[in-house]
Amino acid sequence: MFILIVGCGRVGSSVARSMLSEGHEVSCLDEDPESHARLEVGLDKGWEDLGGQFTVGAGLETDALVAAGIERADAFIASTDGDNTNIIIAQIAQQRYHVPTVIARILDPLRAEWYERQGMHTVCPTRVAIDMLEGAVREGAPRSQGPSDGAAEAA
Amino acid sequence: MYIIVVGAGKVGWNLARELLEKEHEVTVIESNRRRYLTVEQELEHNVSYGDASELWVLERAGIERADMVIAVTGDDEDNMLICQVARQKYEVERIIARVNNPRNKPHFDLLGIKPSVSATDLILRLLEHEVPEYGLVHLLDLQEEQLEIIEMLLGKDSGVTGRRVGDLEMPEGSLLISVLRNGKGFVPVADTVLEVGDEVLAVLDPGHEEQLKEMFGPSGGNGSGNGSG
């Protein structure tokens, strides 16, 4: 599979490394040239030496998307730090370049929920965090009561 | 009308002023706290602080009852997103989006965000109007309605000067609506004879431009010293 990842932050770069190690072809696009270094964290070889691609440019720039290989991408991941950017470029990938699998990272749960309902494949880390925290609190509630009860009794 | 303007930059602020003067109900949404406080001194309750790409901020501003949303922030992604949710989620009837980078214009079109306005386009249009060798000037494009109005200046070499309007074989789907002569405009009748230096206005279905250009324009080189007339 050829995977194009736009936005090479902590999330984008980690996904890029795992996909590459699983044998996929991976291309990253980021407007910050420095983000290339993040791709190589924990690797003993250079990103390009391992077969990865890296292009400097913004996700809205058609030229940059094409240079990064959007026309032959099987999967497209929008993981820049801007929700609106991710939402817009995901639609461009889908509607203009007809990439079969398009996933957008959206931090705002409300926007994520609405676009999900419009048929966009979204991942909302905030939603995941909310669910996990709520779960942890519910699970942990009796446990945390324990010691404080004990403390009260001891007093 | 109730109009929501997103972005209180120079464009948004002045737009709000004009709209308020025309007695519309207006809310401007600005996400920069400092800018908000500045604008608030003048616009008072007509400006609201928040990031309009957050749905609850739009809802707080009453987007459900808005007749129009105008997104004029300095960020094209934000303008696209705000207009998209305004139209598709909140069913706002009219939207206008500002295009900051003209290279993003195809994205606005792809996502159906119309009309979108870019300063570069406007200046180009003005340039066409000011510089006659362009021959044909777009005065108005109504994309949805499939109509446009163009202006043409009749030069010395124009094939239609000296002819009666009634004798012209206008392409189907086009109509001569006005003639500007010596600074005055009038509606031509069949007996009107076109003169060198006339500026003619035509309304037409898109796609007939070339035919009209051929018919009204000079056969040879453009800008043949017809200047200001």
Quote the distance from N terminus to C terminus of chain A: 64 Å
β-sheet strand percentage of chain B:
25-35%
CATH homologous group name of the largest domain in chain B? NAD(P)-binding Rossmann-like Domain
Rg from Cα of chain B: 22 Å
Profile the largest sheet of chain B.
Answer: 6 strands, parallel
Q: How many domains in all of chain B? A: 2
The CATH architecture name of the largest domain in chain B reads 3-Layer(aba) Sandwich
Strand content of chain A: 15-25%
**CATH superfamily name of the largest domain in chain A?**
NAD(P)-binding Rossmann-like Domain
CATH topology of the largest domain in chain A: Rossmann fold
Give the oligomeric state. Answer: heterodimer
Structure, described:
- The complex is a heterodimer of chains A (155) and B (229).
- Chain A is an alpha/beta fold.
- Chain A has helices spanning 10-21, 35-39, 62-67, 83-95, 109-117, 125-154, and strands at residues 2-6, 25-30, 53-56, 75-78, 101-105, 121-123.
- Chain A is globular.
- The model of chain A is unreliable at 150-155 (pLDDT under 50).
- Chain B has two domains: 2-121, Rossmann fold, CATH 3.40.50; 131-216, Alpha-Beta Plaits (2-Layer Sandwich).
- Chain B has a six-stranded parallel sheet with strand order 3-2-1-4-5-6, sandwiched between helices. Chain B has a five-stranded antiparallel sheet with strand order 7-8-11-9-10.
- The longest helix of chain B has 13 residues, at 76-88.
- Chain B is elongated.
- The chains are: A alpha/beta (155), B alpha/beta (229).
- Chain A binds chain B through residues 60-62, 82-85, 87-88, 91-92, 95-96, 108, 110-111, 114, 118, and chain B through 53-56, 75-78, 80-81, 85, 88-89, 101, 103-104, 106-107, 110-111.
